[in-house]
Amino acid sequence: MTTTIPTAELTQEIIRLTDGAALATPFSQRHPGFVLAEGYRIAREVLTVREGAGWQRIGRKIGFSNRTILEQYGVAGPMFGYMYDRTLREAVEREGQFSASLPLTGLAQPLIEPEIAFRLRSRPPVTRDPEELLRHIEWVAHGFEVVQCHFPGWKFAAADAVADGGLHGRYILGPRRAVAEGDPKALAAALGAFTITLLKNGEPAAEGGGANVLDSPLNALAFLIETIEGLPGHPPLAAGEIITTGTLTKALPVTAGETWSTRLEGLPLAGLELRFE
Fold first, then answer.
1. How confident is the model at residue 183, as a pLDDT?
2. Which residues form the domain of 215?
3. Measuring CA to CA, which residue among 175, 202, 197, 206 is closest to residue 258?
4. Counted domains in the chain
5. By CB count within 10 A, which of 51, 86, 250, 263 is most buried?
6. Per the domain annotation, does 1 fall within a domain?
């Protein structure tokens, strides 16, 4: 027997949970047959509601691209969600140092993730050629995503995570580097080989690097392009979009009063500091 998924009802529930930083039982536990396609259908409806309320879509976030954390969350592979003008913050640069502060109010069960982000120069084709992808990228940046989850204990199915905005909370965009015409080969290699240290209050808390993200953040972008091609109703990628590619280390819980920072080696990007209020 086919079970009807109450898409409109669940769309409104996700919006209420997000706006209220509240928790609820995962949809997959309440509705048999709630699979990935249903999650993306709700994500598309949430996008429509948000844009109707004046929110501006500024890009997309990729999640679960780090193979080292898939077993922890019980998922099989990557997914994506939308980012908005109201969820993006810019770090401030002072003498080559990039820093920002962020209140945790309004976020549910927040975790921090150091990431690589791209701004698209043009709509990229379906390809896994890293150098070809870089030709469609205006700049490469380092940032923090503060992810959140509206299901208790971060327990969910992949479809729930997609419906829950791809678990996106806030994004702090830090140092960036323009992609020049002669860059693709060397930069593509660096994106798969660089390493990063995540520090909490000055002490190392996690290590990782570009190889954790499907062997390179560029491969995460390739996944996104392919996935969107197969999702009717979801807008295609466009010039100017910011694409975040997934955490380079394990994601860690955060609380007010903490300061988190990064050190990158092997990539021409400065580190980033974020203080939680």
1. 84
2. 7-276
3. 202
4. 1
5. 250
6. no
CA 15-249-261 angle, to 5 degrees, is 90
At residue 120, what are phi and psi to the nearest 5 degrees?
-75, 135
Which strands form 272-276's sheet, in the order they lie side by side? 92-94, 97-102, 272-276, 259-265, 195-200, 203-209
pLDDT band at 1 (very low <50, low <70, confident <90, very high): very low
CATH (domain of 51): 3.90.850.10
Does a structural domain hold residue 150? yes
pTM: 0.96
Least confident of 6-10, 46-50, 181-185, 245-249: 181-185
Residue 108 forms part of a structural domain = yes
- Asked if residue 2 is part of any domain, the answer here is no
For residue 27, pLDDT over 80 is answered with yes
Residue appearing with tokens 């993006």: 88
Query: DSSP state, 130?
Result: H
What average pLDDT score do residues 134-141 get?
A: 97
SS3 22: coil
Distances (CA, A) of 144 to 137, 141, 218: 19, 10, 17
The residue type found at 209 is: G
